[in-house]
Design a protein that fits this description.
Strand order of the largest sheet: 2-1-3-4
CATH class of the largest domain: Mainly Alpha
Strand content: 5-15%
CATH architecture of the largest domain: Up-down Bundle
CATH topology of the largest domain: Glutathione S-transferase Yfyf (Class Pi), Chain A, domain 2
Number of domains: 2
Order of helices and strands: EHEHEEHHHHHH
Largest sheet: 4 strands, mixed
Number of strands: 4
Number of helices: 8
């Protein structure tokens, strides 16, 4: 049995964590869960009481939340160079990883649900407004090839997945900077492998 076990579903954010594991290149095991039954079973609720995926087991350690899984794996396997070590790029790594998990996700959720936010309410929200959030991200990606410098990192796994899905499902407007960034990431062999594994599992379930 592998020391790394990912609990996931192919129609979930677990695809992000799966991509991260493929980038890592270490042996891992996949436990596929479904929403209606196994994700709510006592055995899995003992791992994640929220009853959602993904969750990662690494030996005796349990990590939930996709951004945390990406950051955790990058930190536990520093030889894989998936987290910058120099202070400037590492600052960008943490800044934009948590920006994607916080302000970006909040802004996209509020917009997609058409929840009204009056200008005087923006100060109470972690993202301000959708336009400011998107403009900040466009500006950041205009400066460099990857979000934390000139080298790919775990932050790109998380942010690139968010932008890719957002543009695919029209919750984030297409932008040339976003499209070029996502296209670059989608050429990575690890992304292609993880995507194929998930697609194959989905197809097998439908047969």
């Amino acid at each position: 049995m592998s020391n790394l076990v990912l609990y996931t579903n192919p129609q979930s954010r677990g695809r992000m964590a799966h991509w991260m594991l493929e980038e890592l290149g270490e042996p891992y095991e996949i436990v596929w869960l479904d929403y209606a039954s196994s994700m709510q079973a006592p055995e899995y609720l003992a791992i994640n009481l929220m009853g959602k995926v993904p969750a990662l087991r690494h030996g005796e350690a349990i990590v939930t939340e996709t951004a945390a899984i990406c950051a955790y794996l990058a930190s536990q396997f520093p030889e894989k160079n998936l987290m910058p070590l120099n202070p400037v790029d590492q600052a960008a790594f943490f800044r934009w990883l948590f920006f994607a998990a916080g302000p970006l996700e909040q802004a996209v959720t509020v917009k997609s649900q058409a929840w009204p936010v009056a200008p005087e309410q923006e100060g109470f929200l972690g993202f301000g407004n959708y336009t400011k959030t998107i403009n900040a991200l466009v500006h950041a990606l205009e400066q460099t090839s990857y979000i934390a410098g000139d080298r790919f990192s775990a932050a790109d796994v998380y942010l690139g997945s968010h932008l890719g899905w957002g543009m695919l499902f029209n919750t984030i407007e297409k932008h040339p900077v976003f499209e070029a960034y996502v296209a670059r990431l989608h050429q990575r062999p690890a992304y292609l492998r993880a995507n194929q594994i998930n697609d194959d599992y989905l197809q097998a379930k439908r047969v």
